Structures
1.
Amino acid sequence: MNQKLTNYLNGVFTPYDGVKSVTELKADLHSDLQERFRELKAEGKDDETAFNITIESIGDIEQTVREVANLSRSLERQVVTNFSASNLSKSDFAGVTAHKGKFTSSVLRGSDFTNADLTGSSFASSDVRYARFDGANLTDCNLSVLDLTNASFNKSILVRTNFSKSGLFGTTFIDAKLTDVNLTMTDLRKTVFENCIFDGVDFTNTDLTGLRLDGQTFIGVKFDKAALNEVSFKGATLKNASFQGSLLSKKYYRAIKTVCFDGAMMDKLTYAALKGIEADLSKVTVI
């Protein structure tokens, strides 16, 4: 066998040692190239000519190997991020990248996802009590129908994140921007929101009783059929917010009268909608 050919292949494949599919490719290629080299020698070619023709016959092998390795590693990462039905209590996931990760029906109590990129991941039906998602990217994540008691989402990236029907007792959202987030049919009575921006958030049929939302910003937010008894929007900014109740029940409209809008600023459309259902807007500034 030609040792020079073997050394050449070793040099090309060394950066990808340990990648199974690349190792298999190397073995197959080594066999084929040695056979080709022998054929050229049998035709009367000298060693140098036979070697050069053999190498030229495989084209840009380095690019091929890189593509195979990248594909293999991508598939391996996809396998690794499937943690469904697992017991992962107090696990360390801080800073990881796990796009479309599967954490459904798992025990993740006390786990740390700080600054992780979890775009497109699902945590449905899991126990995520006391978990930390501070600074994490939760774009397009499904966090519905699960227990998030005392979890934290401080400075998290929340875009199209789904929290519907989840338990958020003691859960904190501090310095976070919530964009097109789904918080429908959820109990938020003991949830903490501080210095947040709510853009396109849906609170339909959610219980916000007694919640303090003072000084925060609400743009295009839906509070339709939500429980709003004693909610405080002191100093808040509301633009294009929707407050619609059931035509068959007076409960929603009675609750609106208990909401505090003192010092709030709102656009004309929001002001008119609230005025029409007899909210107390005596200390509101129209912008």
2.
Amino acid sequence: MRVDAGLAKLLGLSRTVVTAIADAGEVLVDGRVAGKSDRLIAGSMLEITLPAPPQPVTVQAIPVEGMVIIHEDDDIIVIDKPVGVAVHPSPGWTGPTVVGGLLASGHRVATSGAAERQGVVHRLDVGTTGVMVVAKSESAYSALKHAFKERTVDKVYHAIVQGHPDPIKGTIDAPIDRHPKHDYKFAVMQDGKPSVTHYEVMEAFRAASLVEVHLETGRTHQIRVHFSALHHPCVGDLTYGADPTLSKRLGVTRQWLHARQLGFHHPADGQWVSFTSEYPDDLSSALEKLREEG
């Protein structure tokens, strides 16, 4: 295998990190500096000098404009996440976060989980809007994490995808892993994690289709990757192959993807609860343009 691919698998690091290590001359094969594209040969002596661990990410309590509280009780906070907001801090992200916004507005969240992800039991992409839940109590955190792991949570998304999926109702069962060449992307990979997406076309337009999606699993970028693999990428999702001309015509500057509904057993009493988020203005406007075009 190549040095970058082999070390990524061996060390559990991303190719971007491994490439940086190799470029810094910190990978030796049989005592000689190896480049990222050199080959690893069985029986060779491999020496790697790892960089210092990154500094811990801290949560900045900064108000988030447009973040709406849909429901709150002693155990959970259900929010409507606006576009351009990350769920929690991460290296390299300097924008607003859900966790920081909740803290800034005086809301208490569970202390379980990593320091920068306290209370977080699931995530939405920065460019994806919609409904999500954050745990306030420690018992709610444990119960919700278990529910997401056991797939007892009903996660419903609406997406506008290019073209017309055939069949109009189906299941995409294709494993997903990090893209072999682009560290910021994911892709359908033979040895990836099992990923299952159920969909049904709700409306068909001349150039696109509005689909309702039920996620059985919750991989990073799952809906975007699966529909891109079918050659029906989400409108506006240039990262995964969307047509920039169509995106511009509809005034969409990010993927047309919205977490529409979230249902789960309430961690306090086990009663089923469900919460819905309306489309934000940019997505509604694009949908109306498609309807007008026919």
3.
Amino acid sequence: MKTTLIIIGLLLFYTSAAFSAGKAAPMLVEKQHFTTKDFTTVSGKKIAKVDIGWESYGTLNKAKDNVILITHYFSGTSHAAGKYNADDALPGYWDAIIGPGKAIDTNKYFVISSDTLVNANWHDPNVITTGPASINPATNKPYGLDFPVVTITDFVNVQKRLLDSLGIKKLHAVMGASMGSFQALEWAVRYPDQVERLIHVIGAATMDAWTVAALEKWALPIRIDKNWQQGNYYNKERPLDGLAATMLNITQDAMHPIIYNASFPKFTVLDQGALNDIRTLPQLSQTLATRAMARAKTQDANHVLYLVRASQLFTAGMQGDLTSALKNVKAKTLLLPATNDLLLRPENMRTVYKAMKAAGKDVEMSEIEGGWGHLDGIFSISPKAQLISDFLKE
């Protein structure tokens, strides 16, 4: 019992640390809209029109050299900090470190973040993105699976067009977590002269067989949902059951058993309903299913499939040789893997750290401790605030 209470206390501590900064005097932000045309993907396909949402915090200086780009994670959005309205339940996911006087000080830096292509959260009114659910101008119908496969590089190239439109040619830093770390590293590899600092959080530099297979488990429930219909479900019944199952998989894979178990203090293994009737789900499963369905209703199933594919195809610089790709990096680099991460395991980044050191790169690594697992990169980031602040000043 004592151990359980300690773990629950840690859960409350990390949640409070991540979000408390937004409670007193929230930084109010506004979603903005960027459009670009005739975008060519890595695969050579053209998208006639691309729309993405973006938001910023702080003020762009006259020289336009105080810019920090934040690139978001798989199920995230551009909402990295602040609130849209003062009475919003929670601020953006990294509000603990982004804002006036915080590690990423918006009194000093102009912080910008954008929704990715094929953002999962199609039904969230605060998300603007182009993907399979968008109208194909050639047919006036949703693209569905006719939308071209897109990659992490494509996400970065859309962001570059956004920054170009604002006259921004240099990044003081680029920072991202999980899938956001893929984008941040891709920036440093593909545009080395434009990126001065790289902060790579709970990420990877290339996919391995284990991770590609793990990601396919996120896609499978959608593909076998009877309503998916090979992606042709628009204006029909949505494949919500499959998408909810995908949300269950993502949530469990992103959490360590320490916090996952602590989240259910009333769990009992001898569930009476499940014991009496095979058709009755255990209470735990019922609770998880309800939460997952609520999350699924904000998302588009095809968009999730495209995000899975973009992640599965990721390797820095889209080169077969990771060592050669890492040699392109000129940015001063800070690697922040999570010690208890079971999804993007820290040993992979330890290998990358050694490779960058051997190549003479200016790189340091500090592991994030905590009980969240992969999600420590979001909820346990506060203890790294001083390290991040100092890294940005150097």
4.
Amino acid sequence: MTAAGTPGHGPLTGVRVVELAGIGPGPFAAMLLADLGADVVRVDRPGGAGIGVDPAYDITNRNKRSVIIDLKAEDGAAGVLDLAERADILIEGYRPGVAERLGVGPEACRDRNPRLVYGRMTGWGQEGPLADRAGHDIAYIALTGTLGMIGEPDEPPAVPANLLGDYAGGSLYLVVGVLAALNHARATGAGQVVDAAIVDGTAHLSTMIHGMMAAGGWQDRRRANLLDGGCPYYGTYETADGRHMAVGPLEQRFYDEFVELLGIPELGPARQDPARWEELREGVAARFRTRTRDEWTAVFEGSDACVAPVLSLREAPGHPHLAARGTFVDHGGITQPAPAPRFSATPTSVRGGPAQPGADTADVARDWDIPRLTKDGG
């Protein structure tokens, strides 16, 4: 068995997952399952996914194995159904109805394996007026109200990369869903379909905000609230060198330490008076502009003022705390986030680099006892 399929790494050791190759949240969800120890077999299509990323650097395919099956070929579906018969979970990210047309939809798979958990990852969901429409992260989060929360009030909403929709509202909810359904399948012998829609998951992430809004504690506009930059002691400030510090001393005792270390104790009482918030914001901004980011980092070092430097992606792995925890690892010459979360009895690791399309066909055919794979894809 290849390194990526080696058993004994993580709490999902022994769980078999089939991933029908796609882009975005599906591969990330499958990576998370693989990081947790599952034997994830990615079914790549001939010619690749078509997004122009060198497979050697696509670390969302780490800890997986890959076979190539042409689902448009006459016997393509048969190979996937053979895998589904031996799997616990299958993940696909096609538009509604596509998997069915290819012969690998939920019914076809569960006819072969009634215990199978069939995870469906889409933006709009399997049903609804937009279900058949194309889309990407930014459109999905736009409709949920979450994109409209982020940014300055007099500027367009800020784009949070594709982290909020694809990965938080999509991948993570798919993983929670398929693992919950797997628990049910193991208890009852019955699999089921998990409809993970990015619009649903992203909306769910805003549950607390909706409660605050109903209670009158949140205004439905940008930068007017406690946690969206409207509060002067919860936000970011530019330093003398053009970098930034993040500030978040919400509790009184942390706030007191913050204004003391920043050197503006006279502005401390402004916290209690929203009419003085702009005065407080200007005072905080003026102070931060007097020193560099690293100098302010040193000032707040060891304190409970809830202040941290805003680091770039390249800087983050070198931060002493993250380095001490091993939050980032180097594998195959690529610095990347380590698997998360952590487990006391079943530790996880990066066991293998990005799966190369079709490279593991022979191993999977042997390990999963599917000889036809070597004939069709190897």
